[in-house]
Every structure is written in structure tokens, then in C-alpha cells.
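CORE FACILITY INTAKE
Project code: CF-77B
Contact: R.S. (postdoc)
Sample description: multi-component assembly, two entities in total
Requested service: structural model of the whole complex
Turnaround: standard
Below are the sequence entries exactly as provided by the requester. Do not edit them.
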Amino acid sequence: MSAAILEARVQSALATTIILLFANSTALAHGFAGQRFFPATILTDDPFVADEISLPQVSVNPPGPDGARATDIQIDLSKRITPDTGLIIGDQGQRLKPSGLPAVTGLGPLHTEGQYQLFINGPHEVLGLLGLNVTWAHTGRVQALGAPDFTTLSPTFNFGKGFGDLPRSLPYLRPIAITGNLGFGFPTKTESAGVPNPTTFNYGFAFEYSLSYLVCCVKDIGLRSPFSQLIPLVEVAFTTPINRITPGVTTTGTIQPGIIWAGPYFQIGAEAILPANHATGHGFGGVVQLHFYLDDLFPRSIGKPISEWW
Amino acid sequence: MRRIMMVFAALAAVIGVVPAGWAHAFLDHASPAVGSSVPTSPPVITLWFTQDLEPAFSNVTVTDEAGQTVDLGNAHIPQDNPAELQIGLKALPAGTYTVSWHVVSVDTHPTEGTFTFEVGHG
């Protein structure tokens, strides 16, 4: 090997090492625990800090119990502040069509969430995250759209578990993963316009079957891109009032079967929206989401944690 | 609805100008295939990834059921295919073998994985 080639290789190795040292935490973004990739789910909160943006998420909700039908266009930005802490900010434009009345449009309430990545266990494909979600008062159209005139503080615990550590005698169960969130919503006003604002228990789960995990880590069944990047899933989320309960007010929630395609820079998801009970609504709706991975699109700039921008 | 479609079309156009190449390197396929059985010992195992790899930080090992290393320790990325990782194997008796890989893509994202294949049952 000539001296010039050796020098070039040494320079290349040094440059790569420097890049990796400065980009290390960027590389850990995304929903990874060991060899498990968790996609960003649509209905339930994710158990990982990330640099991602949902742009947009469009929902046509099922008619409510009173027949009103809401259509939302939502944007959510997730940004890591440090490798283990993050912030989410989001809002939605809403069109509400009450039964027999003209439609009204406007912004829904602004919501933010501070997050801390509690743990990641690669071998057992487990993630845990603590968050404090805040829905801000008077940031949406209160009277026309029913946006809240009070702030709600919602501490949450989000988790994810992949089942790749199951015995190899159960190969086709190993691509399964579950993510979920458990939390409470504490309103800062006990009532609005004479109606009590209850404290709520909020819980949701996503049941996923990762074809990419099946192909990469269990059994190559011949699937190739784009089909090997599909993740069928069912999401459920419920809200239960636990105090200041108005008669007739009960648990509400939706069940959302769908599919996510996760590519290199973005994912696309689509789900049906089915009311879980009559208190939630009737009929069905749907949601589609285009979701970008900023850490993959801009790995050396805005895709890094803010603490590493300088 | 038309406005929504226009938003999606604009975003698709943005995606179209993103530089080519994948971000995280996922295992696309392998030889011997993931979870497969082969009749005789393969001389080499080859992994194909969805992204070009960084040679200095990418490696693969193969172990037997007792955890003993059965590869030749010569993991390398062919110059003409930077998304491929190869390693030579000793002569393998019948049994189940575990392939463990850890790679870093050229844009610094690390990924890892394991899978098994069988010899003597193909």
C-alpha cells in the first residue's frame, strides 16, 4: 500500500470518527430498542423522543352522539432538546358540522408536551417515556368549536414492548409489538359555563405486527420493498372521567385498525375510526397521516438535538 | 378535499428532491436467508442492506448453539457494493447458527440485528 493511499485512508477514518462522535445521539433518534423499530403511531402517543413532524394528519371523525361531524387537519412537531428530552407542539384546524346547522371552522386548542426518555432496553425491546402534556386554554375557538376555556395538565407514561425475545419456537409471534400510554388529565378549572370539567384517566394501546421485523430477524418469506416495510396495527384509546362526573357522561374512545408504511425518510399511515360505544358516536370515519423523520432528512442540522446545534 | 390533495402533492414533491439513499440501514436480505435451512455448510454469509455502510463501524459475527464463534473474523464490505457485508465461515456441522450484525450507515445512523439459519436440514 502506498503512503498516499494509507494517508487517505487514515484521513477518511478520522473524518468518519469525528462525524460519528458528533452525530452519535442523532443516530439514536427514532423509535429503536435494539433491533426493534417502533413506528410513530397515529392515535396513541409514542414511547420515544424524536425529531419528527406529522404534516399533515387529516381526520374525518365519525358523527358524535348529537350527529355533529368534525374534520381535522393536524400538525405535530416533535423535537429533541437533548438526546433524552424532547418537546412536542401541535395544533389542528377543525371544521365542525352540527346536525342541521351550518358548518363552523377554526383552530382547536394548542397542545404541547415535555418528554423524558426514561429507559431503553435493547435486548428485550422495551422503551419507557415520561411526559407532561398541556392543552392550553383559549387557544382555540371556544364557543363555536367547543375548544376548552381551561388548561389541562396531563402527566403520562408511554411504553413500548417488542416480542422479539420470545422463544424461537414461536417465530411468528416475535414480530408483534405493543405500545401504550397511561395518564391523567387534570383541568385547571372545575367547571366551564356551569358544566363540570372532570379529571380523566386516559389510556391507549397500539398492537403492531411488523413485517420488516419478520423479514429481517425471524424468517425471510420473500417479501421485498415496499411490502416488507408494512406494519399492520390496531390502535385503541379511551378517556374515563373519574370525578365531577355529569350524569350520562361515561367512558369514550375509538378503535382504529389500519396500516403504516415506514420508509427511509417518512411514513404514511391510514386507519379507520370506529367509535367504541354510543357515547363516543356512531358510524365510522378515517384518518391518514404523512409523517417525516427529521433526523433522517437532516441528520447533521435540524435533525440533531438542540443541545448539539453548537 | 382538493386542498388536502394539493398539500399531499406538494409534500410528495418535497420528498422527491431529498437526496437519494436510505437513512437507517435495514437488513434487506441475506444468504443464507434469514430463518432458512441449507443442506451443507455455506463458505460465506452475505448480508445486503438498504443503505451504504461505513466499513470502520460495521461488523458481523456468527456463533453456534454453544455460543462459539464459527466465522473466520474477516468481515468486510466489498468495494463494488458498499451496502453489502460479508464474512467467511468455518466448515459448519449440522446445527443452528446465529448471525449478529451491527452496522453504521454512511450518514451515521447505527442499526443492529440477529437471525438464525440451520445447516443440515435443507
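Facility notes:
- Helices of chain B lie at 2-16.
- The two ends of chain B are 54 Å apart (CA to CA).
Invoice: internal transfer
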